[in-house]
Amino acid sequence: MHVDTITELLALPNYKVICVIEVTPESLHLEVVPKEYHPPVCSGCLRIHNTSVHSRQEVVVEDLRMGKRRVFLHVLKRKSECLEDNTIRTGYFPELLGRNTRRFAEYVYRLTSITTNPEAGWFLDMDDERVYRIDRAIPEAFSRERFQPVSPPSYMSVDEVAWQKWHKYVINVVDIDQRLVIWNHPGRGKATLDKFYHDVGPEACTQIRAVASDGARGYLQSTREHTEAFIVLENFQVKMSLSDALETIRKEELKKARKEEDGELADILHCNKRFILMQNKVSSKKVNLLETLSRINQRVFGALLLKDQFLSVYTAPDRLAAGRILKEWIVSALRSSLPPFKELALKFFRKRHYILNYYRYRISTAISEGINNKIKRRERMAYGYKDVTYFLLKIHQHSGLLNPTLST
User: Looking at the domain 155-234+364-398, which fold is it?
Assistant: First the structure.
């Protein structure tokens, strides 16, 4: 095959094939040179110094495959003196990224976005370490272009996810309109969220209209200090708190029933029927269990009623009606003999404005919770991450601004 034909098939910008060095069933080695001569660009300062060439060095870089053959390009790189620091530096080639062409590195990056690094390495006949270096270099290069400045969202949610044991967390800020992670950082609490608002800037913070949060004190304080946005206490977390309080009562009564050998109550409160009691929808099985509980155990029955009563806050026609239902619920919970629900009543009283803000902006952290599930799934597939910076980039690759599907 003629070298001009190979050049056309290769379709590498600004380069042409002048010689086929070696052909094997597994690989193809080609010598390529620039189509036009250009003065060497310094890789240190990215400037043209017009100094004499110090030396030349041939490097081998891998390119996209041709069929089943791996393609290796032999490129002659020129070295020259940088006038900025008087050091000898290799010329800068924008088409190349280390020992790979940039398009091959982006191909590896797209592949690792849908599978794990070891599986991508097996498919490409590459070792895991090389896949890791490529998979890290591409998002690092993209991050410098897409992360600065941080674009302020109109509606955002804040949540954290554990990336290692021993309470090591990463905070994610999600743009609810775009459904993407737009910023993340190691840590949690007020100090970490303050960094996001500092990156956005005081003027841009005024564009944030509403923030959905799980109600953590640090997130509330940081948002109040830096923005004038409405804070919405996420209804998913509220419902989780109600379920946890009900679960505490259920376990206490189950333990007491087993101690007193009350077989009927123990059978109802057993784990295999717990999901029937915890579900929000009304079914025939749940109605039968509630009728039995109303006869034999008032504590669990009362806890179930309080949980179901609170859910009507989110089905009210407007904010005024929701506030009236919430007030009635707080009074009922405080008058009950259930300590977990009394604690919840005090908590909801302090944060009642945040709960009712749901009727101003019907947003939630549901998107953040979904993204957290995707992150945990990727973390399990990778068997964990040791490098938190790489982990942050992988979050952006799968659920953020570096997702390859955004550019297609």
Answer: Nucleotidyltransferase; domain 5 (3.30.420)
Identify the pLDDT of residue 273: 61
Q: Is the dihedral of CA 41, 42, 45, 49 positive or negative?
A: negative
Place of tokens 């919840």: 344
Report how far residue 209's alpha carbon sits from residue 229's, in angstroms, rounded to the nearest whole number.
Answer: 5
**Assessment of whether the complete model's pTM goes beyond 0.85:** no
b/e map 353-373, b = 16+ CB within 10 Å: ebbbbbbebebbbebbbebbe
Residue 129, pLDDT above cutoff 70: yes
Q: Give CA separation, 241 vs 159, 244, 310, in Å.
A: 16, 5, 11
- pLDDT greater than 80 at residue 291: no
Residue 209 has a pLDDT of: 92
Report how far residue 247's alpha carbon sits from residue 277's, in angstroms, rounded to the nearest whole number.
10
- And the tokens for 203? 């003027």
182-217 tens-digit pLDDT = 999 999 889 999 999 999 888 889 999 999 988 888
| Tens digits of residue pLDDT in 310-346 | 888 888 888 999 999 999 999 999 998 899 999 999 9
Write down the domain spans for the chain: 1-98, 99-141, 155-234+364-398, 257-359
